[in-house]
Amino acid sequence: xxxxCLLLFSGGxxxxxxxxxxxxxxxxxxxxxxxxxxxxxxxxxxxxxKIGLKLxxxxxxxxxxxxxxxxxxxxxxxxxxxIDCHLLMIKTAGRIMKKEGFDFIATGEVLGQRPMSxxxxxxxxxxxxxxxxxxxxxxLSAKLLPPTILGxxxxxxxxxxxxxxxxxxxxxxxxxxxxxxxxxxxxxxNYSINLxxxxxxxPSFSHNDVLILRQGRVFWEKDxxxxxxxxxxxxxxxxxxxxxxxxTLVPDNFPGPTVLVRKYKKSSREEMIxxxxxYITKYSKNITPSPVLKFL
Length: 296
Hints:
Blueprint: E1 4-8, H1 13-24, E2 28-35, H2 42-50, E3 56-59, H3 61-69, H4 82-100, E4 104-106, H5 120-130, E5 136-137, H6 163-171, H7 189-201, H8 207-212, E6 217-221, E7 224-228, H9 232-237, E8 247-251, E9 259-263, H10 269-283, E10 293-295
Parallel strand pairs: 1-2, 1-4, 2-3, 4-5
Antiparallel strand pairs: 6-7, 7-9, 8-9, 8-10
């Protein structure tokens, strides 16, 4: 019997290898990537194409944002609720699996590779909460885990060493793959500090709020959020994220950054403008004797 599986696919080497191992066992693999306001599927698209697979993308932004605000299983060193996040992806994939006739779901997880979400206890929590019995396959570490629909598995990779993965990459002729890196902005300490501040000031923050925290230097004054663009790209992007009550200032006759000021409580428009002018002045060079600013 030829199985068909839905593989959670991040685009890293582990998920690429998981796809190849499953295909080597005669399984038809459909890679799926979940995107949200905190991570994209850009790398997954590139990697899937390199190994000849067509990527499926599912947007979990709304549900994921609710989990970010109130995770059940806690957070890592940053603002990352990794267990809750992985569980959301597993459950979503499980629903798709049942609805569309897949035989099981798979991941590229490696036992012990990530301290919070890939230790044995975390995997047990996820498997129990997902209620998918033996239908979650982790090919890279399958030999170290309970049997699944595919049996005991061939590989027993664990820990942070990449030695075995690199050998498998040669075996499966995977020549191009991304360097190991966290694709989730929630693991970034500076971003996490600002997101925590945002939650303290405005617990009902939106997708727009978390996206704008990535668009420049971030400052807080009372209830005001100030974003100072660091380059031309961010100067172009900030106005696209502007809300009606925001103040956005752009230098008109001198070189300098776009600055966006957003209030969350009672600051007046005059206070917002004064704040924006202060930061443009601080981060601009060669200001003319009679500077002119544009309001967007």
